[in-house]
Amino acid sequence: MRNCGLTQGTGKAHKLAALSNFIWSSQELARRRYLDLHQHSPPTLSEAHIELIPEEVVSIDIGFRNLAFAHVSRCGRVLDWRRVELLAEANFEPWTLASVVEKFVQTELPVRPASTCTYLIEHQRFRSQGSAAVTDSVMVNNLIEALLYANLRHAGAHIVAINPMQVSTHWGLIEGRGSLSVESHQSVGDKAEPPTPQRGKARSKRSEEGHAGNVASLIARLDGILREQKQQTSTQYTLIQQALGKEPRRKRTTKAAANRDLDVLIQKGSKSLGTLRETRRRQIKKERTISIVQSWVLDSLSSSKTLTLKPGSHMKFPAAVAEMFSSEKKKDDLCDCLTQGVAWYSWQRNVVDVLDQYGSTNTTA
């Protein structure tokens, strides 16, 4: 399920039911797309299943101030890729929001039929990062998400909601799966041994101080990881500018975290330490996402190399698109929508393998 981009949920029965329903719906979608494109029943199951992978995807990273989308072909060519400001500030007026989203879909977003294109929309949450509050910006983003669905469905588009956690897992951006793995940094999300039961206020206080010390040490390690990652993305940026025949206007701002004294960190208290730890995790994830995409752009700009996602599939960035990306100041939103689209294509290839192995499309229906 993870390799197909599915949320696993809990319980064996739930997983089996979800996977069974997914296989059935995927078979039907593949069959409909084949009939729309070829006007006759597929001669073999594999020929029907391959049509599940659309010719194009439009991957959308939602934001009212920084919405980004990437239009990518099945062969890996980036057809369109940009960031759009829908609103200068949060707005809850229904008429304004409806008009802005409708204009965006009609004038800027590529609109393609369901037989050849799939729209990937990052699923929004009302609460994230452990926050109890629901901010204005989060509420506006959820409204924009619903309006995008309404406009695209009216246009006959095929839409898929994407869980951003699945994308992070695919690229190894979250703890325990690569970049922030507990094996290399003993850190994020690592399950420590259960604490020894404490008695009395003195032991409780010592236990709290010990926990604060562990979190402070983790933050210090994350600071080092962040400095190294920002240095890498800065170097990649310079190489991209050179490949485009340009001198970097300025060195990419890194604002790396300074070395911290553990005693000073511990004095901040558990709540402040927890907030700082989550901030560092998000910053590292953002930098690593940018680094992934910048490596693709560099490979594409090289005359002798292309990035291989799978045999026969390569990322291709036209010069104008690469120049846009190099000059864009808000690269993280562009990178989020592109990595989402590329991950989904990879999942779809895995889905086709599953269908060929376990599925049985009724080709006479």
From TrEMBL:
<feature type="region of interest" description="Disordered">
    <location>
        <begin position="182"/>
        <end position="213"/>
    </location>
</feature>
<dbReference type="Pfam" id="PF09159">
    <property type="entry name" value="Ydc2-catalyt"/>
</dbReference>
<protein>
    <recommendedName>
        <fullName>Mitochondrial resolvase Ydc2 catalytic domain-containing protein</fullName>
    </recommendedName>
</protein>
<dbReference type="InterPro" id="IPR012337">
    <property type="entry name" value="RNaseH-like_sf"/>
</dbReference>
<feature type="domain" description="Mitochondrial resolvase Ydc2 catalytic">
    <location>
        <begin position="57"/>
        <end position="350"/>
    </location>
</feature>
<dbReference type="InterPro" id="IPR039197">
    <property type="entry name" value="Mrs1/Cce1"/>
</dbReference>
<dbReference type="InterPro" id="IPR015242">
    <property type="entry name" value="Ydc2_cat"/>
</dbReference>
<dbReference type="GO" id="GO:0003676">
    <property type="term" value="F:nucleic acid binding"/>
</dbReference>
<dbReference type="InterPro" id="IPR036397">
    <property type="entry name" value="RNaseH_sf"/>
</dbReference>
